[in-house]
Q: What sequence folds into this?
């Protein structure tokens, strides 16, 4: 086994709305993730994926996104909460792959204008992740009152989030390593 | 591609792959191979290479109704 292979953990920014505050959350999580030795990351903005909306599922698989998901050992999904749910276009993008996700870890970052920090969108995403073959961790990040949490330039105004993000990422990296070992070394039968 | 032992061979480095997952898939997929046409479903196998980490999938050779 190539034990020295880095983990690849992309961060998916799951909204295309103009003025989306989730971009700041995604950037800070990607920045913190990039500080871990042996971990490579990149920010995938679903607004930049040229996916059609006149079809769905794997029929619209986009080669670059598919390749990133195949290479990934784990995912971070950053999702705002819109009317208690996830953005439709996030689901549209996630549904374009399947085999790429199997037995890989996923952590979910919720973002909301209110006090619950996307707790409801995280709960709604869990069964979707399971059906896609992803393995959820039990640590989340909840960005609450997001319009007050970041400066206009995207600077995080509450440093208390940094250790919370660290706990989330440590759990995700552990799960990514564990699942990589399982995918590569432990047979189903 | 499988070797004589029925193991998938890594398309990237030709190492024998590890079969770590199955999923019941309900729609026809191009190149899926044998499947239960009546139910329009098959089991997709997922394999990962222990050498380079590449993933691959293929249709299971048994019908889902045999499980």
A:
């Amino acid at each position: 086994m190539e034990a020295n292979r880095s983990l690849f953990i992309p961060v998916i920014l799951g909204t295309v709305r103009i003025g989306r505050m989730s971009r700041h959350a995604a950037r800070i999580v990607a920045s913190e993730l990039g500080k871990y030795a042996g971990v490579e990351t990149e920010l995938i903005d679903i607004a930049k994926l040229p996916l059609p909306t006149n079809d769905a599922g794997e029929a619209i698989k986009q080669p670059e996104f598919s390749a990133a998901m195949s290479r990934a050992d784990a995912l971070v999904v950053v999702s705002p909460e819109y009317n208690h749910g996830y953005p439709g276009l996030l689901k549209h993008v996630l549904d374009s792959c399947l085999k790429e996700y199997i037995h890989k870890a996923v952590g979910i970052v919720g973002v909301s204008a209110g006090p619950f920090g996307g707790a409801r969108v995280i709960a709604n995403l869990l069964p979707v992740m399971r059906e896609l073959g992803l393995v959820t961790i039990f640590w989340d990040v909840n960005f609450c009152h997001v319009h007050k949490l970041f400066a206009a330039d995207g600077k995080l105004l509450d440093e208390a989030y940094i250790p919370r993000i660290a706990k989330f990422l440590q759990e995700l990296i552990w799960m990514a390593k564990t699942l990589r070992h399982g995918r590569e070394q432990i047979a189903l039968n | 591609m499988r070797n004589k032992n029925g193991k998938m061979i890594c398309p990237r480095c030709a190492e024998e792959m590890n079969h770590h997952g199955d999923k019941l898939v309900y729609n026809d997929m191009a190149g899926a191979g044998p499947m239960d046409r009546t139910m329009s479903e098959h089991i997709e196998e997922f394999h990962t290479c222990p050498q380079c980490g590449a993933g691959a999938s293929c249709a299971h050779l048994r019908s889902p109704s045999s499980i």
